[in-house]
Amino acid sequence: MRKITLSLFIDYFTYLLVIVMEWILWLIPETWAFSFGKFLGRVVWLTLKDRRDAVLENLTIAFGSEKSPEWIRKTAFQSFEHLGLLVVEFFLIRSWDQDEMNARIELHGHEDFNLAMGPGDHGICLLTSHFGCFEVSAVSVKFLGMKTNLIATAMKNPFISKYMFSRAGENSGVTTFPHKGSVKELIDRVRNGEMLAMLGDQRGDAERGIFVDFFGSPAPANEIFARFALDGEARVLPICTYRTAPGRYKTTFGPDIVITPTGDTRTDLIHVSSQFHQLFETWLRIAPEQGFWFQRKWRRKKRKR
User: For residue 296, is it within any domain?
Assistant: First the structure.
C-alpha cells in the first residue's frame, strides 16, 4: 500500500483540479474555452521568463536573418497562445465523436495513407513533430482505424500520468511503451509489420555528435528515430496537423520519405535524421506560431557555476 505523504497528497489534489478543469471546459461554450486557452498562454508568457527567452532565442536562430525583431517577438507571443490552445484541445477532443471529427478535421493525402497501409511485410513509422496540433493527429489516426505503438514519457505526477495515458480508452488501438528499455522490442515490432508513431524532432545529445542542418544552423538530433526506421526496415509516413481556425484543423499524410541505406551506420543516421528535419522545417514555415519553440533546440542553457 502506498504511503500517504504531503507530496502524494499534493499530486492527487492537482489531479483533481485537472479533472475539474476538464469538466468545466466540456460544459462552457467552445468559444469561451478557446478564449481561456489563449489567456492561459498569455499568463505563461508573462510568468515564465526562462521559457519566453528560450522561444525568442529559437525563433531568432531560425528566422533572424529573414524576419524583423518585431515579427519574432509577435510570433513568440502567439506561440504561447498556441500552447494554451493545445491545453484546451487536449481535453476537448476526448468528447468528439466520429461525425464531429469528420466535420472538424480536413484530411489530405489519402493516396499516400492507402499506399502505406497496403499489403506487404513492411512496418510503418508514422512520423510527426511538435508542430501544430499533434494531439489532433492522434485523433486522426484513431479516426482512420489505425493501430499503432507509441513511446510515452511518464509524468512526475503519477495520478495525472496514469490518467493521460489511459484517456484514449482500451479500444483506441494505441499501445504505449516507456521511453527507456523499449527500443529493441519496438524495432522488432516494426520489422514484423506493426506501426510506430514518432515525435521525431526531439533534441539529441550534442555529445553523440549527430547534427543536422535545421534552418541553416547545426542542431543535435535524436538519432533513435532514424534507428527505428533503418533497423526496423520501415516505410516512413509523415503526418502533419495544424490549426486553420479555432476548432478546425488540416491533417496531411505523406508522401513516404524514401530511405536508402548505405551500410555505414553513422552516415545513415545523419542522413535520415536530416531528411526528417528538412520536413519539420517545411512544416514550421507554414505556421511558425504553431511551433513548439519552448525547448532550446540548438543549444542548452548555460549552467550557473
Answer: no
Classify residue 252 by burial, with Cβ atoms within 10 Å: 0-12, 13-18, 19+: buried
Residue 210 lies in a domain: yes
Q: What is the pTM of this model?
A: 0.86
pLDDT, one tens digit per residue, over 185-224 is 999 999 988 889 888 898 877 666 789 999 999 999 999 9
Cβ within 8 Å of residue 232, ≥6 positions away: 123, 125, 186, 187, 189, 190, 191, 196
Q: Using an 8 Å Cβ cutoff, are 18 and 160 in contact? A: yes
Residue with grid cell 481556425, as numbered in its chain: 245
**Does residue 194 contact residue 173 with C-beta atoms inside 8 Å?**
no
Say if CB 219 and CB 277 are below 8 A apart: yes
DSSP, res 182: -
Is 301 part of a structural domain of the chain? no
pLDDT tens digits, 137-172: 877 777 776 778 887 776 777 777 777 766 554 555
Instruction: Round to whole Å and give the CA distance between 303 and 55.
Output: 18
C-alpha cell at 165: 495515458
> Residue holding cell 555528435?
209
**Which residue range is the domain that position 239 belongs to?**
6-290
The domain total for the chain is 1
